[in-house]
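About this split. The held-out portion is used to measure sequence recovery: a designer receives only the structure tokens and must propose an amino acid at every position. Recovery is the fraction of positions where the proposal matches the reference. Here is one held-out target exactly as it appears in the evaluation file.
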């Protein structure tokens, strides 16, 4: 094939380059040459020519500029092949060019040694490079209490600092001794219900001291907690309960009704309080090991159902002990802000409680940006995790609230260099980019962000944290050279056991580690495309499949597509993530209805809202007669049209907002939602709104209208007319209070 292509090209080698450009009319750009950017030149003419009375020799001239991005010129001489690599210094530095040269020479040596070897088996890395990427970059082994369980480490803290504040919530504080005692009482009740080693206990509670008591009690009883979000649709909760094999549910009387008929024994903390108070508050001494389960946490699944990631005690202990990515200690104040069904809560909870630090609890309701700022100041928060999207909003609208935070970790999506630079410049705290899938227990790599690199427009995901290994491999699971993209694989003590009740999926994604001498060692295949920088830091480059991250939540587009396709009026569906001009990403659903009037955006949005968590519901809906296909019959996602205002999930007839307050609100919504026309009866969430955007709306209302609007008001009154009524009422109360 190569021979035929070359011979065909040789037949047309006399065609002028200018003629090619004229005929092909490629898109012009000042950043690169048209048609091609890499050239290979092979010169096999003689080195010198003889003339009567004149001696000649070839002289290499350096023109000082590169004609294209990369040119390799090879001259054949009787003694050897002379190679000259010319590169564009705007794109490559000297070390990169030198590595390319070394890889080319290594490749030639491989070919010369065995000319029958398949191209895919030819090696590029030298032994020194291979040792560097496999061993030197993964020299992360550190001492930590790997043979002790989470609750045992907490009990140590309860003995060492019994009177120190462990939990701080609205108007309530618990010392380490009090938290330990409450957890022991509940643990004894759980034990009598049959909870023991490897038992799964579902936990459905809002953020509160009772939630933390329950998680600790489950571990003390020997079980593993399965966090459930009460906001999830009923069928999703049912699936998680059945899939996890949980037989006990800890909740409260206000939420217990959500689990009726699901085959679990409910323990309501509020109604059982008196009974629990009579239990012994002494440690139970449950017989569990660090290899036993600590929790099962559900994430989006590509098969159409969520998958439960089974995490052990050792996985969690490795996350927060023996680490240096942040400073842990009794002087820190952490904030439990993440939902407990999101694995960032693992860092927040146990990063505080296993070090004798204070854990402040954000209120149960979704907070506004102002609420967050006030909480940071009120509790004296020193160590904080924010998703990349929330971090960006805080920097834009409430930067002042971050100035007391000493250590701020962010991630869950690409970190904006612009916002990182502003935080570093104006707040001066330590800013860390944290990366890691749930399957590797919250963090795999971390990177302290500096002003120099954000000025260059890049934020790497960093190096592996202690007792963690990362490899960037090709499709044959061989290490790729520095600077070359491959798939990221993760190993080490943070690696989860696998997926609950899914042995086939576990075997597919948790594969044998070919680089370890440890029996049974595995690697997790992330699906993330990354590359190693020269100093060992890892740079994220996207996904190789249909997984996306929005607002810190991992979403398998296949699960959303399966939910859309289950609608009786939909024949085919595709879901993609698109980006707003300002960087905000959202899901767009493309559906082929069974008939032209079979469904509409509002009806389909309502259907999905009852079946998927809020963060997985698409914000735009485009109906097509057919989905565009590629030549091999797959959906051509690049050919799907961009959505416009007609793709919004409006359910009512447009009505013009009234002059004054309604018009002002419509203007705020339009700016936040990037929507040109907002009607008086339009629903904020049907127009693409979500909890993060709601915080922006509330902040702008407080700033522009001088009304202290609580965030919950937007959830309770999600239309312009209804919200205007609430604002008028609050405004009048504020005026009377001032009078």
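Reference sequence for scoring:
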């Amino acid at each position: 094939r190569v021979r035929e292509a070359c011979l065909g090209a040789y037949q047309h080698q006399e065609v002028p380059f200018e003629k090619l450009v004229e005929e092909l009319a490629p898109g012009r750009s000042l950043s690169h040459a048209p048609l091609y950017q890499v050239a290979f030149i092979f010169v096999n003419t003689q080195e010198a020519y003889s003339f009567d009375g004149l001696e000649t020799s070839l002289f290499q001239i350096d023109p000082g500029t590169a004609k294209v991005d990369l040119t390799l010129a090879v001259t054949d001489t009787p003694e050897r092949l002379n190679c000259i690599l010319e590169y564009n210094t705007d794109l490559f530095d000297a070390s990169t060019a030198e590595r390319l040269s070394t890889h080319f020479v290594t490749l030639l040596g491989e070919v010369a040694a065995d000319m029958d070897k398949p191209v895919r088996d030819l090696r590029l890395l030298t032994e020194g490079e291979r040792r560097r990427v496999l061993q030197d970059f993964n020299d992360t082994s550190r001492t930590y209490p790997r043979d002790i369980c989470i609750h045992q480490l907490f009990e140590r803290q309860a003995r060492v600092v019994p009177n120190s504040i462990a939990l701080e919530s609205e108007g309530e504080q618990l010392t380490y001794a009090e938290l330990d005692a409450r957890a022991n009482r509940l643990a004894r009740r759980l034990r009598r219900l049959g909870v023991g080693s490897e038992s799964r206990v579902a936990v459905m509670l809002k953020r509160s001291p009772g939630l933390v008591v329950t998680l600790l009690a489950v571990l003390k009883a020997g079980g593993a907690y399965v966090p459930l979000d009460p906001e999830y649709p009923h069928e999703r909760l049912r699936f998680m309960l059945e899939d996890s094999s949980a037989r006990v549910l800890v909740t409260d009387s206000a939420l217990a009704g959500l689990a009726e008929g699901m085959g679990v024994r409910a323990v309501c903390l509020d109604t059982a309080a008196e009974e629990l108070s009579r239990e012994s508050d002494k440690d139970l001494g449950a017989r569990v090991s660090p290899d036993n389960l600590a929790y099962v946490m559900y994430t989006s699944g590509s098969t159409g159902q969520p998958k439960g990631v089974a995490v052990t005690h050792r996985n969690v202990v490795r996350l927060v002990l023996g680490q240096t990515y942040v400073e842990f200690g009794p002087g820190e104040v952490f904030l439990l802000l993440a939902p407990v069904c999101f694995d960032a809560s693992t860092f927040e909870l146990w990063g505080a409680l296993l070090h004798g630090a204070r854990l402040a609890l954000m209120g149960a309701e979704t907070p506004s940006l102002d609420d967050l700022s006030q909480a940071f100041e009120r509790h004296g928060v020193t160590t904080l995790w924010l998703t990349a999207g929330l971090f960006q909003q805080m920097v834009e609208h409430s930067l002042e609230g971050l100035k007391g935070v000493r250590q701020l970790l962010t991630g869950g999506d690409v970190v904006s260099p612009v916002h990182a630079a502003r935080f570093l410049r104006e707040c001066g705290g330590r800013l860390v980019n944290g990366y890691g899938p749930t399957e590797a227990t919250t963090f795999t790599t971390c990177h302290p962000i500096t002003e120099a690199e954000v000025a260059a427009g890049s934020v790497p995901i960093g190096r592996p944290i202690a007792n963690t290994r990362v490899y960037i491999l090709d499709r044959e699971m061989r290490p790729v050279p520095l600077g070359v993209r491959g798939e990221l694989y993760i190993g080490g003590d943070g690696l989860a056991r696998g997926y609950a009740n899914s042995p086939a999926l576990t075997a597919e994604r948790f594969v044998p580690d070919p680089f370890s001498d440890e029996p049974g060692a595995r690697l997790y295949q992330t699906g993330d495309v990354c590359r190693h920088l020269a100093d060992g830091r890892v740079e994220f480059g996207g996904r190789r499949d249909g997984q996306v991250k929005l607002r810190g939540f991992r979403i398998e587009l296949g699960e959303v597509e399966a939910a859309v396709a289950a609608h009786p009026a939909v024949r085919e569906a595709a879901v993609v993530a698109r980006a707003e001009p300002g960087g905000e990403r959202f899901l767009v659903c493309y559906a082929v209805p069974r008939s032209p009037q079979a469904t509409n955006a509002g009806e389909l949005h309502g259907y999905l809202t009852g079946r998927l968590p809020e963060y997985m519901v698409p914000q735009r809906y485009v109906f097509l007669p057919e989905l565009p296909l590629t030549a091999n019959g797959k959906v051509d996602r690049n050919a799907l049209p961009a959505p416009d205002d007609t793709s919004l999930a409006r359910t009512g007839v447009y009505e013009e907002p009234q002059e004054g307050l309604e018009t002002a609100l419509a203007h705020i919504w339009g700016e936040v939602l990037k929507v040109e026309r907002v009607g008086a009866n339009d629903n904020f969430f049907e127009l693409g709104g979500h909890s993060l955007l709601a915080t922006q709306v509330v902040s702008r209302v407080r700033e522009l209208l001088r009304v202290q609007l609580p965030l919950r008001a937007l959830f309770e009154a999600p239309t312009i007319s209804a919200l205007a009524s609430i604002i008028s009422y609050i405004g009048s109360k504020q005026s009377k209070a001032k009078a």
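Annotator remark: The mean pLDDT is 89.
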